[in-house]
Amino acid sequence: MAFLSDALERVKPSATIAMSSRARELAGEGRDIISLSAGEPDFDTPAHIREAAKAAIDAGHTRYTAVDGIPELKRAICDKFARENGLSYTPAEVTVGTGGKQVLYNALMATLNPGDEVVIPAPYWVSYPDMVLLAGGTPVPVECPMEQDYKLSPQQLEAAITPRTKWLILNSPSNPSGACYTVDELKALGEVLLRHDHVWIMTDDIYEHLTFDGLPFATIAAVEPGLKDRTLTVNGVSKAYAMTGWRIGYGAGPAALIKAMGTLQSQSTSNPCSIAQYAALAALTGPQDYIEESRAVFQRRRDLVVSGLNQCAGITCPTPQGAFYVYPSIAGLIGKTSAKGTSITDDEAFASALLDETGVAVVFGAAFGLGPAFRISYATSDAQLTDAVARIRAFCGGCA
């Protein structure tokens, strides 16, 4: 009898976490490392949110709460959806989890049976397929190349749907590409989904507040109200308010689904951290100045990185519309050899050689389901980004 679960054989460790860990190890050995692998704002959590957490401790809010969120936070989430997205939900249609990842995982675990399929546009966040596999489902990746702005077309969606399709996962703005679906693009996808009423939609809107160049954010349940009753809209405070370590995510959808997810959470983690919930309440109901300030910084950094990477031999870097990532192609480097003798056979070899030879940590495109490419998180200082781009340019220039 094997000791470890067969389920573990279906999944692999997160490539983004693995690269971040490797970068930390090398830095610990004294190497000059610039890590551009983690998807985490480099700003402090806004002061009023930190103060709310301290006040929650002083007020004694340190005990168990309702399994899927305190009533005050659920009401604030309902208000947020109404105010910012034009979506009407009741507290019974809202769940709060330990980060957006738990909300996504709970939904998949609560709904998937063996053989159920989940359509996932690629490039995708590394965890989507593995969460589907852990839940016993079958991920169906659909490659969406750079030439179509890394976005799923209605024709591709129609072709991917089968009688076994249970979910479509949409992530906009996207991790890793920064691609954003417009209202018209979501309407076109919605027309396909309206014809297939057995397909549910899981929309991961965690980067909602990071869209650039005046592009308005759109989410499919608001664009096509006919899909609202089979859509789970997932969001959280981690990216919008620099609260990654606080681990608060939330989702809204049909009450029966939310209840099932709550049952699952009651037997796994139970409630999210009580103190973090009160901090999230302050984030959603307090001053929102931080959002615009951080957006301006990230747009400036995006422009810096895109301009610099497009000056690197063999790299083509499109300009993303949101999030804090770029996803450049390295098609022009495949088959070449680095200055220190590494053969660039694929994007994993590229990322490994780049780290070893220059100290710049990025995540290779195969981890996101579409290559040859790599992901850079530009959620770090201008000085580090400038240095990193210079190192990448020198590395590429040395490949022959």
Automatic annotation (TrEMBL):
<feature type="domain" description="Aminotransferase class I/classII large">
    <location>
        <begin position="32"/>
        <end position="392"/>
    </location>
</feature>
<dbReference type="InterPro" id="IPR015422">
    <property type="entry name" value="PyrdxlP-dep_Trfase_small"/>
</dbReference>
<protein>
    <recommendedName>
        <fullName>Aminotransferase</fullName>
        <ecNumber>2.6.1.-</ecNumber>
    </recommendedName>
</protein>
<keyword id="KW-0808">Transferase</keyword>
<comment type="subunit">
    <text>Homodimer.</text>
</comment>
<keyword id="KW-0032">Aminotransferase</keyword>
<dbReference type="GO" id="GO:0006520">
    <property type="term" value="P:amino acid metabolic process"/>
</dbReference>
<dbReference type="InterPro" id="IPR015424">
    <property type="entry name" value="PyrdxlP-dep_Trfase"/>
</dbReference>
<dbReference type="InterPro" id="IPR004838">
    <property type="entry name" value="NHTrfase_class1_PyrdxlP-BS"/>
</dbReference>
<comment type="similarity">
    <text>Belongs to the class-I pyridoxal-phosphate-dependent aminotransferase family.</text>
</comment>
<dbReference type="Pfam" id="PF00155">
    <property type="entry name" value="Aminotran_1_2"/>
</dbReference>
<dbReference type="InterPro" id="IPR015421">
    <property type="entry name" value="PyrdxlP-dep_Trfase_major"/>
</dbReference>
<dbReference type="InterPro" id="IPR050596">
    <property type="entry name" value="AspAT/PAT-like"/>
</dbReference>
<dbReference type="GO" id="GO:0030170">
    <property type="term" value="F:pyridoxal phosphate binding"/>
</dbReference>
<dbReference type="InterPro" id="IPR004839">
    <property type="entry name" value="Aminotransferase_I/II_large"/>
</dbReference>
<dbReference type="GO" id="GO:0004069">
    <property type="term" value="F:L-aspartate:2-oxoglutarate aminotransferase activity"/>
</dbReference>
<keyword id="KW-0663">Pyridoxal phosphate</keyword>
